[in-house]
User: Fold this.
Amino acid sequence: MKPFPHLSIAAAIFAALLAAAANASTPAFNPMAIRAAAGEPAQQVWRAGPLERSGLLRETSSGKIQHVVVILEENRGMDDLFQGFKNADTLPYGFDSNGNKIMLSPIPLEAPYDLDHTSGAFFTDCNGTGSIPGTNCRMNGFNNEYVSCGSSCPPNPQYGYVPHKETRPYFALAKKYVLGDRMFTSHLDASFVSHQYIIAAQASSSVDLPAGAWGCDGGPSDTVYTLTSNRGYGSPIQACYQNQTIGDEVDTAGLTWRSYASALGSDGDIWNMYQAIRHIRYGKDWSKDVISPQTRIFSDIKHGFLANVTWVSPTCAVSDHGGCGSNLGPHWVASIVNAIGKSQFWNSTAIFVYWDEWGGWSDHVPPPYVDYDGLGMRVPLLVISPYAKNGYVSHVQYEHGSILKFIEDQFGLGRLSMSDSRANSPAGDCFNFAQSPQSFTPIPTKYGPEFFSRLPVKPAVRSLD
Assistant:
């Protein structure tokens, strides 16, 4: 298999999103058979050891946490989104591949362009010296990324930070609760794979984006490439999996889960992650537990319901994604936190806010190498709870699997794959379960649930990832 070229060719990837998807069915995905046919060694399957099975390695809240809410935002790095936050590891500059020091410029959330954030961009940005692509990163290749603004780009468009006047709700949350500045993605590429990792701790070795729809509705022709053990291209597979997910484990445990996401065919539907899990997309969970639009979370909380495990995915306008032309994301997140904080559920809830990948923005911290698919670039993590430490910056290494491990440990669920088994749980460094629960103080925000619930539902946007 050929290794990934160190290129930034997002235009071809973006164009693939415009392909029409056909409805069809396909046999269950068998990753081991695919890898064997491609002449690649089978990926190691993680199995719990005796200490894991006994529960002795689990960090729990002793029943104090009964609800875990995961709020997904899009495409921001630490240096970009939390620039200058006290005690956090950020730098106001980066370097280009020619050795020039480039100061980060204020670039607002609504800036009308996007950056390459595919696997090719990861290798380009890393500009590593290791024998495996994307290792021993020098973190000075951002200037070689593809940028969607072409000749209208500002100087050094990859080297920016979001002005603090736009990130006030995020800074307010970080000052009150916990900011993690060593959160890396479990994968090294774009959002499709990222969203599989946050429900299944894996993505069947997939890399980059499907050719059409981001899930089972695309049929057998809707394929996505795979990564091999040496970070080369593997055989394409259908973007429709039979992987076990946290939702499945929650069902088996007799608990409840909800994924609040855009309906298929509407803005943000590419981030409706359970559409790529065959037994959920075509099973009873799709109508019972995958809820659209995502603003339904406000009415559910108001009427006295919050599932044990909840995911909330954005629309373009509230996602923080480059090129969406909006700065509503911080207010959207704050409005969800405020709704929970003012409710009966506050004292038993842990909220995690994370950005699914770096979006191509310059960051100075090189990602650790743990396996063929990770770790990816650094992203921010907010941990919000009455038991979260107060005004604390965690420097512990986290990844997607860290959030899943926290969920698994609170509810006695099994491990799913390598990501959640190897990851550090935030329970140890971000929480103090011995403290009395903190009372909730609402986060100042321009817009609340009523505003977001009134926003019109727009058609799907196929040029984002």
Q: What stands out?
A: The radius of gyration is 20 Å. The chain has a mean pLDDT of 89. The longest strand covers residues 67-73. The chain has 16 helices and 14 strands.
